[in-house]
Amino acid sequence: MISQDSSQRTTATLPSRMNFSYRCGWLLFRLLYRTYFRWQVFNAERVPLTGPVILASNHASFLDPPLAGSGVNRAINYLARDTLFRYPGIGALLRSWNAVPVDRDGGGASGLKSILDRLLAGGAIILFPEGTRTRDGKLQNAKSGIGLTVIKSSAPVVPVRIFGTFEAYGRHLKIPRPARVIVKYGQPMHFEALRTEAKTCPKPRVKQIYQEVADQIMERIASLRAEPE
Length: 229
What we know:
The structure is a single chain. This protein is of the alpha/beta class and 229 residues long. It has a single domain, classed as 3-Layer(aba) Sandwich (Glycerol-3-phosphate (1)-acyltransferase). Helices cover 37% and strands 14% of the residues. The protein contains eight helices and seven strands; from the N terminus they run H-E-E-H-E-H-E-H-E-H-E-H-E-H-H. It has helices at 20-35, 64-70, 88-96, 109-120, 145-152, 165-169, 192-198, 203-223; strands at 40-42, 53-57, 78-81, 99-102, 124-127, 157-163, 182-185. Helix 3 links the parallel strand 3 and strand 4 (99-102). The longest helix has 21 residues, at 203-223. The two termini are 24 Å apart. Residues 1-15 have low confidence and may be disordered.
């Protein structure tokens, strides 16, 4: 991280800093992706280094969350199944890595509140519009859940396209293969107009807005190519 004078630090920038455990994990994952998977990272500078931001990525593998987070030089909040936090050692490690506990389906009021609290505090979080890992390597339709989160927050959305992780460690594989992986970050997206509309429109329209936002994000993810711009 770029150091800052203490007088310039604000509450909004503190969640962007990496604690010792997070930085160790960040460095180890970067080493793994660089050596075993020969990774490439494109346009990481598009992710704001401070303030709230949602990274919205396609999802093909368990490799995806740390891959998207390792490509940027700031702390990222991750979603993790709440049952994992029951184990003292694993739970402590996940908390030190900024994991947010969610239920089996990744939803629920408590999970949404935790996500919004992280964003309100100026944090970054990675979400997967598809909701689950692809079974065939192809992009899936977006679910409305991410649209709800976007509308309820004020954070910009950075679309993220990940390539190669299905071939490296998709559902069909038990052991990761040394396939090349690529992560590319798109231009930030802003949804002020739809957020404003959602405050006063009828509930049926609000649900439509959630899906519209999700679809727009997924379209932007699909448009990203595995090359620099």
